[in-house]
Design a protein that fits this description.
The protein is mostly helical and about 650 residues long. It contains 24 helices and seven strands. It has two domains: about 30-125 and about 165-410 and about 490-640, MFS general substrate transporter like domains (Growth Hormone, Chain: A); about 410-490, no CATH class. It has helices at about 1-15, 35-65, 70-95, 100-120, 130-135, 140-145, 155-160, 165-190, 195-220, 250-265, 270-285, 290-295, 300-315, 320-335, 340-345, 350-380, 385-400, 420-425, 490-510, 515-520, 530-545, 545-560, 580-605, 625-630; strands at about 435-440, 445, 455-460, 470, 485, 560-565, 570-580.
């Protein structure tokens, strides 16, 4: 008898105390509370979202290094969401009993997915620097104006063979990300009372969204480093052959995320504070002890058997379905964010090293400010879920006019291709993009060849003491001399106004983020919350984030005016130059249409909100719990036995 009690006591300790298996040291108890878990989970979310922000900055470089077009880079993002749908459908019910275990495993899969493409930098080819000797100045007319020899410069075509590593890596990443998105939210909901759950959710969301602009800035910083971490002699950041250290911004946060995943795994299946919350829910008829014990102890067979009936029950919840459809159309619209750094770089002539910090400050700041405002609103007002539904419907509708801020952009001059000064005498090719700038006229030429240049010179226009290599005798350039790189932006004020308007849109839209997530937790009964999150994620990904990158990738490629064309077989690679003015108009039209549809379904959710849920108020006795009781594990049930 005593042996049986000892085994039960040991099992209870493993359920409620931090550690692995039989190792449950007492010094970890100080971390076994909702506040510390929220902090660790938030920091982990931060480091696991940073590589995504880095990826968006380095997309143009990846297109060049691996010879990809926008649809192919969109396919990388799509593989992320395809695996997310599979995980949502197959795995969601399994998360209920072992939430922490699946959250930790999910984080490890995210790290593995990010690291898959990183190792390719050890085996792929990069271009060698072009020096004055390599240009062969004695016969520079043949190498410049009549087309530079491309021997050895088909490295991008050979690198294309490693494209599959990005697909496989992001398939793993999407599969792993499903657990923190579903089981993570439910675990937080179990350890916090309703009023505090909104704040905890805001903290996690803020850290996650801070990771996005931080990733943009980090990626831009490392894009100023050479890919080998040592700048070759004769090469500068503006050189056509320069490739930034795209892999470093992914590697560093992934390694940190790897170690944080093991810290998350230390947390127990049922935290002591969750027992207090559960006891309060039992007292007020929101949940029963039997339901919770069944959830924690259900077997694989029981989980599988319940899956279809659970989904069928949720599909009969009309308001939940409208809410999911609203998020589907919102996810379709925000899929354009994947291409934001690339688009803004083209709209305002920004470089890979500057676009990240600019977007991070403006749009990243908009995300964060909106989420903080939304979290404080939910905490202070204690509105019922139906009122919160109306709030994020209104915010979604009000944000629409600010989407048109993207229409303000720099007027673009297409690089001259077939013009009299180079067309008759030069044999130029668009296979490789070597942009050069005429400082006097501010015109960017596709390459020295298209500028009509026939010699290499030292350019002293900007700095007489430290001149840089440039090209001379350029028949198309006003000054006769051009230097490497595109001409800089000449409309910084327009860019600031455009970014300010679109940032206001971000603040308004994401002020409803916390309300939206609270409603998703309250629109179904306690026992259905994990499976409801699974339905949400699978629908959002299958109908929203999967087709979105392909939709916008197709739209962006549609307005390409100059493609990389192989001189060997004539095949097309990545796009060099876009008709940005027409492209941004149609992108805005599509965004506005999708946002209107999203707002419509949010309204339908509000008008059909169910009135028969056990827990249908954000303001109820559950939030009136003594703080000391909350951090204690003492309650009247055997599951809530006080720790020894």
């Amino acid at each position: 008898m005593e042996s049986q009690k000892g085994q039960e006591s040991q099992k209870e300790r493993q359920v409620s105390q931090m550690g692995f298996a039989g190792w449950r040291p007492t010094y970890l108890r100080r971390f076994n509370n909702p506040t510390m878990f929220t902090a660790i989970f938030s920091v982990s979310s931060f480091f696991l979202i940073v590589p995504y922000g880095v990826l968006l900055v380095i997309l143009p470089t990846l297109e060049r290094v691996f010879n990809l077009n926008s649809k192919q880079t969109g396919l990388i993002l799509m593989f992320n969401d395809i695996s997310g749908v599979i995980a949502s459908v197959v795995m969601t019910n399994w998360y209920s009993a072992k939430k922490i275990r699946w959250i930790g495993i999910g984080n490890l899969l995210i790290v593995a997915g990010y690291l898959c493409p990183v190792w390719t930098t050890l085996v792929i080819e990069y271009p060698a620097p072009q020096t004055a000797e390599s240009h062969n100045m004695s016969s520079s007319h043949n190498l410049l104006c009549e087309g530079r020899e491309q021997e050895g410069r088909d490295w991008a075509n050979r690198n294309h063979n490693y494209y599959f590593m990005f697909l496989f890596g992001f398939f793993l990443q999407g599969f792993g990300a499903n657990a923190p998105l579903t089981a993570g939210l439910t675990y937080l909901d179990e350890i916090f009372h309703q009023k505090h759950f909104a704040i905890a959710l805001s903290v996690v969301a803020v850290f996650s969204f801070v990771g996005y602009p931080f990733g943009l800035a980090l990626g831009s910083e490392f894009m100023g480093w050479h890919v080998t971490l040592s700048m070759p002699e004769g090469m500068t950041v503006d050189s056509a052959e320069f490739v930034g250290a795209w892999w470093l911004g992914i590697l560093i946060p992934s390694v940190v995320g790897f170690f944080l995943a093991f810290i998350v795994l230390l947390y127990p299946q049922q935290m002591p504070a969750a027992n207090v919350v559960l006891a309060s829910k039992i007292r007020h008829g929101i949940a029963t002890l039997k339901e919770k014990e069944e959830e924690l102890n259900q077997s694989f067979v029981e989980v599988t058997r319940r899956m279809i009936p659970d989904f069928q029950r949720l599909l009969r919840n009309r308001a939940l379905n409208y809410l999911v459809l609203g998020e589907v159309f919102f996810s379709l619209q925000i899929g354009l964010q994947a291409y934001e750094p690339k688009i803004y770089a083209k709209l305002f002539r920004l470089t890979d090293t500057t676009v990240g910090p600019i977007l991070g400050i403006f749009h990243g700041g908009g995300f964060i400010l909106g989420i903080i405002m939304g979290g404080l609103l939910v905490k202070r007002r204690d509105w019922k879920p139906k009122r919160l539904t109306f709030i994020f419907f209104t915010l979604s509708l009000v944000s629409i006019p600010f989407l048109f801020g993207a229409l303000l952009n720099c007027p673009m001059d297409k690089p001259p291709i077939a013009v009299a000064c180079n067309y008759s005498d030069c044999n130029c090719t668009t296979e490789f993009y070597d942009p050069v700038c005429d400082d006097i006229s501010g015109v960017t030429y596709f390459s020295p060849c298209f500028a009509g240049c026939n010699r290499v010179v030292l350019n002293t226009i900007h700095d007489e003491i430290n001149p840089v290599w440039g090209w001379g005798n350029c028949s198309c350039a006003t000054s006769g001399i051009v230097h490497p790189g595109e001409c800089g932006s000449t409309c910084s004020e327009t860019m600031a106004i455009s970014l300010a308007i679109t940032t206001i849109q971000q603040v308004i839209q994401y002020a409803g983020f916390v309300s939206l997530n609270v409603v998703f937790q309250r629109i179904v009964d306690e026992s259905d919350r994990t499976i409801a999150q699974g339905l949400r994620q699978s629908a959002r990904k299958a109908l929203g984030t999967i087709p979105s990158p392909l939709l916008f990738g197709w739209m962006i490629d549609r307005y390409c005016t100059i493609w990389k064309t192989s001189s060997v077989d004539g095949s097309r690679g990545n796009c060099w130059v876009y008709d940005t003015e027409t492209m941004i108009i149609w992108l805005c039209v599509v965004q506005v249409g999708l946002r209107l549809l999203s707002s419509l379904f949010y309204y339908l959710c509000w008008s059909n909100y169910p009135a028969d849920l056990k827990e249908n108020s954000a303001k109820n006795p559950l939030i009136q719990t003594n703080k000391r009781e909350y951090y204690s594990s003492t309650c009247s049930t055997s599951m809530c036995a006080e720790e020894e």
